[in-house]
Design brief:
The chain has 27 helices and 19 strands. It has 640 residues and is of the alpha/beta class. Helix 1 runs antiparallel to helix 2 and helix 3 packs parallel to helix 6. The structure holds ligand C2E and magnesium ion (2 copies). Ligand C2E binds next to strand 11, helix 16, strand 13 and strand 15.
Length: 640
C-alpha cells in the first residue's frame, strides 16, 4: 500500500461504518433515507475507484482497466455534488417545484450530462484525461470542466439550502451546508500538497456529520413498525404546506385499536402492527407508489402520496381496504380488526396540519361502512376554522354583544300546556354566522370566558322573567344551563342570588341544569354551591342523562329535582332491551321523587311513547326549535 492512499482507506472505513449503521438502524426506507443512501454509495464508489487508481498507478500495463477506473472515479466524483444537491432538494421537499421549472432542471441535470458525454468520448478524444507514453495519468484539455460543474452544483445546493433555510432548524442547516466548506478546504490542501489525498476523507467526514445531525432515525422512525412516526408526519405535512406541495394521504385507522391492545397485550399488538406495516410497505413497493409511510400510534397508518401518483390514489386506497379486510392473525388466532380507509387531499380538504390530525382522530368515530371514505365528504372545514379561531370569536362576541339567548318550550304532559322553557345560548359571528354552543362552550370553559358568558345568560333570563310579557305567559320557570366550570367557582351561589335579587325574581322561577358529567365531579365547591342554592329554593335538573358513565351514587346524593333524558338515549332504535331499560330508568327516577324531561323528541310517536311511560315533560323539535325571545313569546301565546 502506498502512503498516499491512507486517507482514502480511512474514508472507506468511515463510509462503510455509516452504511452498516444505516442498515442496522433500518434507515433504508423513505425518500430522505433513499437520497442519503444514494449519496453515500456514490461517495463509496468514488473512494473505492480512487483507491483503485492509486494502486494501478504503480503497475504497468492494464491500460483499459486504468481508463475504466479513472472514468469511474471521475464520474462518481462528479455525481457526489449532484447527489448532494438532490439530498438538499429532498430535505426541503421541493421536487414538485423543480419539476415545473425548466431552467433549474437544466441547471441541475445539464452539467452532469455534459460531463457524462465528455467521459464517454474521452477514450477517443482524451479531452478529460489520458495515459501518456509512461501510462501516467495526465489531465486533458477539458479537465477544468469537472471543477466548473462541481462549483455550479455546490452553488446550486447552497442556493436551495439558503432559500429554504426556514424549513430547517439551525443545527440541521449547519450540518447540511458544512459539506461545502469542508470540501473547499480539502481541495485547497490537496492543491498545495498533492501527496495528501484528503478529499475523500474530508467528504466522508462531512457525510458522517450529516448522518449524525440530520439522519437521526430515533427522531423519525417508529421502532416497532419501522415506519416514520407522528413527529415526521407533522413535519412533512407542514413542510409540504409551506412549499405549496399538494399531497394525497391515504389514512388507515384501526378503529378498535384499544380493544385489540387490551386483548393482546403489549407484545401481541406490536406484532400485529408490524404485520400491518410490513403489508403496507410491501404494497407500496409492488404498486411502485413510493409513498412516505407513517405510523402515528394508536393504530393509525398513513401513506403520503406524491403528485406523480395522484391518478391511482383511489384505486390504491381500494386495494389497501381489501388488504385490510383480508384480516390478520396472531398465534393462530384470527383477529377482528375494525378498520377504516380514507382519502384526504392537502391542501384542498385541510387548511392546516392541526385539522388534519384532528380529523384523523375523528375518523374513529365514523360508523363502519367497509368502503373507502373521502375526507371532503366528512370534514366540515368551516368547523375547524371556527375551532381554531374560537377564542377570538368569543372575545368579539363579548365585546360586540353577539350573544343572545333563545328559548325552547317544554311541554308538560300532565298539564297539557307549555309550562317552562330551556334557555339556550346563541352566538352569531359576523364572519362565521351561528357558531354551535358545543364548540364555543368548551372553549369558553378552557379560557375562563364562561364566567362572563354564564353571568350574561343568567342576567338575560332574569331580565326576561322580570318583564311583563313573560309574566303574561304563565310559565313556571326557565331552565338555565350551568357549566361545570361555573359550578366549581366558590362564589357561584352569591352571584346567582345577587342577580335574582337585582331583578326581584323568586328562586322557584329558575331551574339550573347541570350535565351528568359535571355531576360526577366530587369537587367540594360544586357540592357546596348546589346545597346553598338548593336551600335558597332553587331547583336543579340533571342534564343529558344517559350520555356519560352515570355515577348513580353521586346523582342520588345531589339535590336534583328533574332529570333530563338525553336525545341520544331516547332517540335510538326501539329494541326490546332498550325499552326495558328506559321503562325502569324512568320508574327509578320517579321512585326517587324526580320529574323527567325527555329531550330531543322529534316525532309524534315519541311523544306518545314517553307520555305512555308517564314522563312529565317533553322538549324537542316536535314542538319547537329554540326560538329568539320575541318568537318564543308569540309561540307560547299562540299555543296556550
Ligand atoms: P343541552 O343543554 O342538552 O341542550 C339541548 C340541546 O338539544 C340544544 O342544543 C337543543 O337545541 C337541542 N335540541 C332540542 N330539541 C332537539 C330535537 O328535537 N332534536 C335535536 N337533534 N336536538 C334538539 P344546542 O342549543 O345546540 O346546545 C347544545 C349544548 O350546549 C346544550 O345542550 C348545553 O349543554 C350547551 N349550552 C347551550 N346554552 C348554554 C349556556 O347558556 N350555558 C352553558 N353552560 N351551556 C349551554
Ligand atoms: Mg340543557
Ligand atoms: Mg341536554
Amino acid at each position: 500500500m502506498k502512503t498516499a492512499a491512507y486517507f482514502d482507506y480511512c474514508a472507506l472505513i468511515i463510509l462503510l461504518l455509516i452504511l452498516i449503521a444505516m442498515i442496522i438502524r433500518r434507515m433504508t426506507k423513505g425518500k430522505l433515507n433513499r437520497c442519503f443512501l444514494t449519496m453515500l454509495i456514490v461517495v463509496l464508489i468514488s473512494d473505492i475507484a480512487d483507491i483503485g487508481t492509486i494502486h494501478l498507478e504503480y503497475v504497468s500495463g492494464y491500460v483499459t482497466i486504468k481508463y475504466m477506473t479513472h472514468t469511474l472515479y471521475l464520474m462518481s466524483h462528479i455525481l457526489t455534488p449532484f447527489s448532494y444537491v438532490i439530498y438538499i432538494i429532498a430535505q426541503a421537499d421541493i421536487w414538485h417545484k423543480l419539476r415545473r421549472n425548466r431552467f433549474q432542471k437544466i441547471l441541475l441535470f445539464g452539467p452532469i450530462l455534459v460531463v457524462a458525454a465528455a467521459l464517454a468520448v474521452n477514450p477517443f478524444t482524451h479531452i478529460m484525461f489520458y495515459l501518456d507514453e509512461n501510462d501516467a495519468y495526465t489531465r486533458g484539455s477539458c479537465f477544468l470542466l469537472l471543477y466548473i460543474v462541481t462549483v455550479v452544483l455546490c452553488a446550486l445546493g447552497l442556493y436551495y439550502a439558503f432559500k429554504y433555510k426556514e424549513l430547517f432548524d439551525s443545527k440541521r442547516f449547519a450540518a447540511l451546508i458544512a459539506l461545502v466548506p469542508i470540501m473547499f478546504v480539502a481541495v485547497v490542501v490537496q492543491f498545495f500538497y498533492p501527496e495528501l489525498l484528503v478529499e475523500m476523507f474530508s467528504l466522508s467526514c462531512g457525510i458522517l456529520l450529516i448522518c449524525m445531525v440530520i439522519q437521526r432515525p430515533e427522531e423519525v422512525i417508529d421502532t416497532e413498525t419501522g415506519l416514520c412516526k407522528l413527529s415526521a408526519y407533522v413535519a412533512d405535512v407542514n413542510r409540504a404546506a409551506e412549499n405549496e406541495k399538494p399531497l394525497q394521504i391515504i389514512m388507515i385507522n384501526i378503529t378498535n385499536y384499544y380493544a385489540v391492545r387490551d386483548m393482546l397485550g403489549y407484545d401481541g399488538i406490536n406484532r400485529v402492527l408490524k404485520d400491518i406495516a410490513d403489508k403496507i410497505v410491501d404494497f407500496d413497493r409492488k404498486q411502485m407508489i413510493r409513498a412516505e409511510l407513517y405510523y402515528l400510534g394508536a393504530g393509525k397508518f398513513r401513506l403520503a402520496i406524491d403528485e406523480l401518483h395522484f391518478d391511482k390514489t383511489e384505486e390504491n386506497a381500494r386495494m389497501i381496504n381489501e388488504l385490510m379486510k383480508g384480516g390478520f392473525s396472531l398465534n393462530q388466532m384470527d383477529l377482528n380488526l375494525v378498520h377504516c380507509v380514507c382519502i384526504a387531499r392537502c391542501p384542498e380538504d385541510f387548511p392546516d396540519v392541526e385539522s388534519l390530525l384532528a380529523f384523523g382522530n375523528e375518523l374513529n368515530t365514523i360508523p363502519y361502512t367497509g368502503e373507502v371514505l373521502y375526507a371532503s365528504n366528512i370534514f366540515k372545514k368551516n368547523f375547524y376554522d371556527i375551532r381554531k379561531d374560537v377564542d377570538s370569536i368569543i372575545e368579539r362576541a363579548l365585546a360586540d354583544h353577539n350573544f343572545s339567548v333563545y328559548y325552547q318550550p317544554i311541554y308538560s304532559v300532565e298539564e297539557g300546556r307549555f309550562n317552562s322553557a330551556e334557555a339556550l345560548l346563541r352566538l352569531k359571528d359576523e364572519k362565521y354566522g351561528f357558531v354551535p354552543p358545543d364548540i364555543f362552550i368548551p372553549a369558553a370553559e378552557k379560557s375562563g370566558a364562561i364566567h362572563k358568558i354564564g353571568a350574561f345568560v343568567l342576567e338575560e333570563v332574569c331580565r326576561f322573567i322580570a318583564s311583563a310579557e313573560y309574566q303574561a305567559l304563565n310559565l313556571d320557570y326557565v331552565e338555565i344551563n350551568l357549566s361545570v366550570v361555573q359550578c366549581m367557582r366558590s362564589d357561584l351561589a352569591d352571584q346567582v342570588m345577587d342577580i335574582l335579587n337585582r331583578f326581584r325574581i323568586r328562586p322557584e322561577q329558575i331551574n339550573l341544569e347541570i350535565t351528568e358529567t359535571a355531576a360526577s365531579y366530587s369537587q367540594n365547591a360544586l357540592i357546596q354551591n348546589l346545597n346553598v342554592l338548593n336551600e335558597a329554593g332553587i331547583s336543579f335538573s340533571l342534564d343529558d342523562f344517559g350520555t356519560g358513565y352515570s355515577n348513580m351514587l353521586r346523582i342520588a346524593s345531589l339535590p336534583f329535582h328533574i332529570v333530563k333524558l338525553d336525545k341520544s338515549f331516547v332517540g335510538g332504535e326501539a329494541n326490546s332491551k332498550l325499552l326495558i331499560m328506559l321503562r325502569n330508568t324512568i320508574r327509578m327516577f320517579k321512585a326517587m321523587n324526580m320529574k323527567i324531561v325527555v329531550e330531543g323528541v322529534e316525532t309524534e310517536d315519541m311523544v306518545k311513547q314517553f307520555s305512555d311511560m308517564e314522563c312529565e315533560y317533553i322538549q324537542g323539535y316536535y314542538y319547537s326549535k329554540p326560538l329568539p325571545k320575541d318568537e318564543f313569546v308569540k309561540f307560547i301565546r299562540n299555543n296556550f
